[in-house]
Amino acid sequence: MPPRPPAPAVRGRRCRCRCSAFTLIELLAVVSIVGLLVGLLLPVLAAARIAANHVVYLSAARQLCSGYTAYHADHGGDLLLGYTPPAIGGVPVTVRDAISGQTFGYPVSDRYPWRLSPWVGDVWPLLHLHAEDPQRPAAGDAPPVAQAKAYRLSVGPAFGLNSVYLGGHAGPFYRGFSAPGNRPTRNAHVAFRAAEVRDAAAQVVFAESRLRNAGSAADPDAGLHFVSPPRANGRRWVAAGGGFEIASGLVTGLPLGRHGPAAATAFFDGHAASRTPEQLADMRGWAPRATDADWDFRSP
């Protein structure tokens, strides 16, 4: 049977193809949904970044406290001296840098960082998380150059020591050393030995410290080598609205977080935790001899 011939072409017939495409309304709807999702996601990402940065500070606080513990374990229970005068009992307070081989006295040795450094390893990145790590003294540096570098390293650490109540404080409006000879004030508000700490899990040792009351030109992230408790021979700060109201006109290192409202805080038993201003307002976390939340001492 012969094949069937093809159907004759129909003159004038057109092949119509329907092409699918977004309408303007559909496109605007998609753009709106994407914008909404991005708006919801950005705060979550920002919060995650803040939390991650805060964890870094918590880890640094924990490492500092480990060095603090190693120090008093190696010194028969004597705590790391806090903010010291140039000499104690007539003996100059000095520190030695193992890298440059040089010895430094005041004003390098009066802050805690150089005295703690041999027990922490590389302590400087931990203390300068908030700023560029300054240059360190080198073996070939002339003494004045090494002194200047050592001083820069000791100034403005990210964490302040609770030197008012642990180790002693010779700075403004506090007393940890008394005349004659700037000797430690025994049987006073300061703990100089580990055995004097009653509640190790609650005792604040280090906390993020931010410099305040230093003038409008001061870096808002600048640190200070000591951290101010709420009370020390008078009211120093008050927790209010998730922040601080400063009650002292002098330069103060506030326990204020750099990544969120809570400060990374290290405790005497070695653990680190986040603490808000309200949580840090209880004096029983600061002074080993405190008997209530509003406890204070008075200088004679």
Write the layout of secondary structure elements.
Layout: H1 24-74, E1 87-88, E2 91-92, E3 95-96, E4 103-104, H2 112-116, H3 124-127, H4 143-154, E5 159-161, E6 177-178, E7 183-184, E8 204-208, E9 210-212, E10 237-240, E11 243-246, E12 252-254, E13 263-267, E14 272-275, H5 277-280
Pfam families: N_methyl
Keywords: Membrane, Transmembrane, Transmembrane helix
Organism: Phycisphaera mikurensis (strain NBRC 102666 / KCTC 22515 / FYK2301M01)
Describe this entry's structure for a reader.
- This protein is α+β, with helices and mostly antiparallel strands.
- It has one domain (26-285).
- It is 25% helix and 14% strand.
- The strands form six sheets. The chain has a four-stranded antiparallel beta sheet with strand order 5-8-13-14.
- The model has no long low-confidence stretch (mean pLDDT 87).
- Keywords: Membrane, Transmembrane, Transmembrane helix.
